[in-house]
Amino acid sequence: MSGTIASANGVDKTDYKAIATAPLNSRNPYAPVPDFLSNVGSFQIIESTLREGEQFANAFFDTAKKIEIAKALDDFGVDYIELTSPAASEQSRADCEAICKLGLKAKILTHIRCHMDDARIAVETGVDGVDVVIGTSSFLREHSHGKDMAYIHKTAIEVIEFVKSKGIEIRFSSEDSFRSDLVDLLSIYKAVDKVGVNRVGIADTVGCASPRQVYDLIRTLRGVVSCDIETHFHNDTGCAIANAYCALEAGATHIDTSVLGIGERNGITPLGGLMARMVVAAPEYVKGKYKLHKLKELENLVAEAVEVNIPFNNYITGFCAFTHKAGIHAKAILNNPSTYEIINPADFGITRYVHFASRLTGWNAIKSRVEQLNLDMTDEQCKECTAKIKQLADIRPLNVDDVDSIIRQYHLHIKAGGDPTELELPDADGEPAAKKLKQSA
Ligand SMILES: CC(=O)SCCNC(=O)CCNC(=O)[C@H](O)C(C)(C)COP(=O)(O)OP(=O)(O)OC[C@H]1O[C@@H](n2cnc3c(N)ncnc32)[C@H](O)[C@@H]1OP(=O)(O)O
Ligand SMILES: O=C(O)CCC(=O)C(=O)O
Ligand SMILES: [Zn+2]
After folding, report:
1. C-beta separation of 416 from 409 below 8 A
2. Which of the residues are catalytic?
3. Is the ipTM of this complex over 0.90?
């Protein structure tokens, strides 16, 4: 069962009929709820590391680094790469031109204010499209640009018609959409849709929206415009990935991301986090379209460029994202990784790790290590050896070498016919652990 059908715009759509009629055991139990509006199996990524990401506090990308990142994003398979406004600085304009000349597969966009001055500069850079934005909430109308809705309508139409006349894509977005008046929003989107904008954008600029609010707004908008719908979610309240997913469920077509989520304040929907969510919901689409095994390399490139570490709990690539520690987990994982893993690390070129050096370790994990070490021990002996390991793990943290040497010593001891209960365990400083235990008692 492929689960997808080709659509007119070349993007495969989820084939819900195929999913519904497939034999039960071949269905993906985590597949999205069937809904004809949903684009969970047919979305596009607008990758904004080189625009929103440049707004991250630590970011400074020179031309060479921008080109390296743009090529890596292209190789990963993102659909669009969004670049900083050419109106920001002379170098920003030159870098935009340079990236347009690379001949990448991804379409190149630049992001500008809703103003003819910016639009005139943008269309001269060689971009495939222009993303235009203007704040529509009362906060931004009053304290940012100071313009009313009538001005926004008039300028938006003027900019859209101008960019369209140059034969390139144009997207119109309201900034701070979730704190804007719904009637204002729908009427401006309806007007820009009527003049042929390619996409409208909804932006949760302050990260205030919840998934349910996102679903409601996008679903309503889907009934008002016929063009594509792009969405942009900040992560101030921790909902950026969930909001992106809900937007797709409600009919959004494009999601903005940045590598590691970098952007203003604590950033936006991270590319890797979105991949984690989507590979579970639409595995065939995601694995067929994006080079998932390049994610780690891409994240390392950006992390190094902006001088941050990859967080320990990062989606997919965090150092312990596929580490299983507690004995109950380790046993089941060794039998079948799906017991405690919703994502297959191999899809991302990553290997899982079964931890076996703590007081939480169980005998099944030790048995597996004994086998890796090519030693011959019965289950009973593995259990006894596990008890020895726990004894030492109660005193201090253990590493792999500690455990291996206990296993080897135990193995030697029993093979020599010794009584396992008499085995003394070495401590970090070489003292037998049993002696230490007596001293501290
Ligand atoms: C939510 C977002 O992330 S939107 C994207 C943000 N990106 C950027 O800001 C790109 C980098 N920015 C810059 O380099 C500069 O801010 C520039 C070149 C765009 C403007 O610089 P300046 O002219 O010095 O103005 P400054 O940055 O102080 O203030 C922003 C100006 O843009 C105006 N403005 C803000 N948003 C918009 C908009 N959507 N459409 C039109 N004008 C706008 C403001 O009114 C203000 O104009 P003012 O000179 O009349 O006060
Ligand atoms: O252009 C957009 O849709 C988003 C602009 C932005 O970065 C924001 O509103 O946070
Ligand atoms: Zn943003």
Report:
1. no
2. 329
3. yes
